Amino acid sequence: MFITIDIGGTTTRVASFPRFDGPMDVLDKFPTPDTPKAGMRKITNCLDRHVRWPIKAVVVGIAGVVDAENKKLFSSPNLPTWVGEPLAPYLEDFAELETVYMVNDTDLGGLGEAHEGAGSKKGITAYLTVGTGVGGTRIVDGRIDRSTYGFEPGHQVIDVSDYLAATEASKEGSIRGHLEYYISGRNIEQRTGKSATDIQDEGLWATFENQLVAALNNVIVFWSPDTVVLGGSMIIRNEYISFAYLQK
Fold first, then answer.
1. What is the rounded (10 degree) CA torsion for 148, 149, 155, 161?
2. Which residue, 106, 149, 158, 184, has fewest beta-carbon neighbours within 10 Å?
3. Taking the model in full, what pTM does it have?
4. Cα–Cα distance measured from residue 7 to residue 81, given in angstroms and rounded to the nearest whole number
5. CA–CA distance, 5 with 36 (Å, rounded to integer)
6. Where does the chain have alpha helices with state H?
């Protein structure tokens, strides 16, 4: 039995695979708790109820910059209270194994798209996800590309004037001028006071499209991919986005 866990800024999902190449069984989905202890307790309780033993490996995808060696978050604008807490020991003790991997959640999403989704195992896939935050990764020949601190296309500066005009320090993920400031679900909600799913302002979505176009141009010219894949709740369920316009 193989276990995959997706700890996002808003939602946590737990799934299992009876075989390495077998079908996925979604075990549970719940709002991500405020603290790592509460989160890991819900995850292990879920596994205790649903999983057939033995567990051969556990893979954790989490929203933020990951210290893979020590299996903890280095930084995360959407999970600040989880930063610095080693997470693997909870699962290693529970599952009685040392094979626990922890990586950035977007890296896992891009890997999945390259192998089983809209990307390609061979060649270069650029994956950009827009949801609570904005993330992205580069997959080369079916593997996550090397990087020093991970890929952070959500923090590219797309409005230099806004970036230079900011008079006070902002926390990561809410920095004016950065792509994430304009198009992430969390920042749109903070600026408008509404959930992005409830906003019907066509002008706002036209601006969203143009800011996304600027980011996609940068992704293409810097990463030189064969395929660009878009994901995340702000993309998949957004009836106001024209993919023909983005492609043009």
1. -60
2. 149
3. 0.86
4. 13
5. 13
6. 36-50, 88-95, 105-116, 160-165, 179-183, 185-192, 202-223, 233-236, 243-247
What pLDDT, on the 0 to 100 scale, is given for residue 21? 74
Residue 4 exposure: Cα atoms within 13 Å on the Cβ side: 20
Mean pLDDT score of the chain, rounded to an integer? 90
Cα pseudo-dihedral 41, 66, 76, 82, rounded to 10: 20
Task: Quote the tokens at residue 178.
Answer: 């950065």
For residue 154, pLDDT over 80 is answered with yes
Residues with Cβ within 8 Å of residue 95, at least 6 apart in sequence: 3, 47, 54, 55, 58
Adjacent-strand bridge partners of 127 = 137, 229
C-alpha–C-alpha distance, residues 148 and 171, integer Å: 22
Tell me the HSE value of 135 on the side-chain side, using a 13 A CA sphere. Answer: 25
Scanning the structure block, which residue is given the tokens 């894949």? 229
Burial class for 93, CB neighbours closer than 10 Å (0-12, 13-18, 19+): exposed
